[in-house]
Task: structure prediction
Amino acid sequence: MNTMVSSDIRGLTEDELILVCQEIGLPKFRGRQIFQWIQQKAVQHWDEIKNVGKPDLEKIRGRLTLEPLQLLREQVSKDGTRKFLFQLADGQSIECVLMDYDRVKSRNRRTVCLSTQVGCPVGCAFCATGLSGWQRNLSAGEIVGQILDITHLMRQEDPEFQVTNVVFMGMGEPLLNYDEVLKGIQILNREAGQNIGMRRMTISTSGVAPKIRQLAEDNPQVGLAVSLHSANDEIRNDLIPINRRYPLAELMKACREYTEATNRRITFEVALIAGQATQKAADEVARLLQGQLAHVNLIPVNPVVETGMARPEPEEIQRFARVLEQQGIPVSLREEKGTDIDAACGQLRRQWESDEK
Ligand code: SAH
Ligand code: SF4
Result:
């Protein structure tokens, strides 16, 4: 038996699954067939697999496990955004969000926001996930499993349901779980599986500079978003503690290398917090990004009770955007999704935990 291959079938690439089939004496095509059942049809139980004979299926069941995530809670927002709280096999829980865009306006786009860790070791000052500490990394199977279980749930209402876009903006820091995230991306990209284009997946990072460099080298063609929030080291140290390890100069150096190697524009996320979205702060962001192939996405901060942070006034938000525009930086204001359902990731889990106590 090949001990390199894990036993969770949802975390196996198509090639790994073919390898397992060969090891247990099944023909190669079975591997592809079963990959399709698991990854494209998103079946949750072995007996839903129809065109594979029982003896073959028994052999696979003896080698691999198929365990769906357990839905603990679901919230539906007035704007159609849905938030899911899933329980993992070890009892930990994670959140993910489905942003169900208007069918006509955005060509039927269905974006899922995935978690990559249980909790997060970075501990940003404004983030509900960071407040809960860090438990562990998710496996590729758990990362992919979020898409599969959402697909399974949604197909009960709409048999045609298909996720089209993925953002790694849920709980956790994706670049601190680099290998499993990259493996999950490869699995989701497979034509015989979810067939989600590389350019339709975006990794968001708090700024793990060495891993941005590695991403530039591996260049999987996914989008990159950097959570900048402030272009001032002192302020950024307080907001995003990892800035002490990888300060702005080092972060921007990695970003420049990334753009040089991949020719791709980076999205810089800037959360706007009441009292901090000043003209000076906007000027600093504009200065930092001069000459960098960049796009700025402004996000009025989602209030989280424990952080005591609020959104700036609309005029301050407009001024911030204008300052960037005037200095030639492309800027957009994030559409607010699901604010009525605590859409800031980490909030639903915290609420669940306090209800259970
Ligand atoms: N750890 C990664 C990805 C997950 S967080 C990262 O930090 O980039 C995804 C995005 O949500 C980040 O840009 C993060 O800064 C932002 N975010 C977290 N809490 C928020 C809140 N309360 N309001 C607005 N944005 C928030
Ligand atoms: Fe972690 Fe991102 Fe939250 Fe910061 S914002 S604590 S990096 S999940």
Remarks:
- DSSP finds twelve helices and twelve strands in the chain.
- The mean pLDDT is 91.
- The domain at 9-63 is CATH 1.10.150.530 (DNA polymerase; domain 1).
